[in-house]
Structure formats: C-alpha cells, structure tokens
What we know:
The complex is a heterodimer. Chain A is mainly beta. Chain A has strands at 4-7, 10-13, 19-25, 32-38, 45-51, 57-58, 67-73, 76-81, 90-97, 106-108, 112-116. The mean pLDDT of chain A is 91. Chain B is globular. In chain B, the strands form two sheets. A five-stranded mixed beta sheet of chain B has the order 1-9-8-3-4, with no helix packed on it. A four-stranded antiparallel beta sheet of chain B has the order 2-7-6-5, with no helix packed on it. In chain B, strand 6 and strand 7 (70-75) form a beta hairpin. By secondary structure, chain B is an all-beta fold. The A-B interface holds A 1, 4, 6, 31-32, 34, 36, 43-46, 49, 51, 91, 93, 95, 97-100, 104-111, 113 and B 32, 34, 36, 38, 41-46, 49, 87, 93-96, 98-104.
Amino acid sequence: GAVVSQHPSRVICKSGTSVKIECRSLDFQATTMFWYRQFPKQSLMLMATSNEGSKATYEQGVEKDKFLINHASLTLSTLTVTSAHPEDSSFYICSARLTGGRNTEAFFGQGTRLTVV
Amino acid sequence: DAKTTQPPSMDCAEGRAANLPCNHSTISGNEYVYWYRQIHSQGPQYIIHGLKNNETNEMASLIITEDRKSSTLILPHATLRDTAVYYCIVRVTGGGNKLTFGTGTQLKVEL
C-alpha cells in the first residue's frame, strides 16, 4: 500500500513553544490530508482537513489559530501547534488519500507523540 | 456518515478465526463499509472495505448482510500480532471524504 510518513515520531517541548509536525505522502500525491488527535484510551478525533493550495477546514471546537495547517504541495502537509501547553500533549496522526486513484482507502502516518512539559 | 456500533472488546485464541461484528443500521445506499485497525501507539492501518458484496484480501474477509445493516470482519487465523483496536467505519467513497472513528473493538489474541 501507499506510504505516509510523519516526522518527528516523538517530541518533547517546553510550554509556550511551538512544534511543527510534518506529514508526507511518499509514493503518491494527496490533494487532501487529514489531521487527527488521540488522547490515551480514546479514539481518533478529526481536527482538520488539509487541502493542497487552500485553507484547511477545521472541525468544531478546534482552534485554527492554535493548530496551524499548511498544505503547500501534493505530498506535504504540516501541523504547527503554537504556544503549546501541557493539555496539548497527545498523539497526533495524519492521513492521506490517493488523488484520482482507483482505491479510496486512506493511509495513515505512524503518528507523533507530543509531550509538553 | 452513518453511525456504527461495535462491541468494546473481544478475545480470540491464536490460530482461531476472529469474527468482529459491526452494526450500521442507518447506512445509506452510497455508503461503503471500511475496516481499519490500530496497534498500540501506531497509526491506523487499512484492512478492507466493501459496498454490498463480500470481500476478501490477504488480510481478512468482509461479510456484509444482504440488508447492509451489519457486517463482520473475519481474520481467518488470528495471531498475537493481530491484537489491536479494530474500527468499523461507514462513509461515502470519494477523495475528499473524511473518516470518523468510533470507539472500535479491542481484540486481544491470546495463546
């Protein structure tokens, strides 16, 4: 299957700083990528839909000024957690769907474990 | 997207078939049934999807009832590495449609 790579896989940052997470589709183009957040023992919660060349669409309750999403190319989307606080500590996961492909399943990155201290 | 209902947990002996049920009684005609799994601390992995016919691939089989109100994911010979949370999701297929995850079924495969 197609490969989606996230970087970094794990990051620890100080409260008040910003952290950027990259999501790359390695062998396919993705017009649309999705960003999820997962707290311990909970399911994945969709944060936003990232569209190449346009503004992201955020889910209700997700602060767009805090979670900045940029999707500048068909293979890269970034999520920046600005002014991070301990409550932002979570597992962040991106996914991408093939553009124009026969298959429509989404492929997920391996996730990024963010710890804010 | 239609809501799905899955049992919170199931156990299975290694080597036996694992049958994971999913109810999606409000599914509409253009919605597909997708199955993903998430092994601890990893991103979800696609397993299989279908519309109304039964499907099989190298990982699993998907059995969808004739009225499409429920489905079963079958892992024919479960191994310890199949221990994961399994998510059943129904959605309209298409490049931009998002996946909405429920609580899934925690499958534990034991010796």
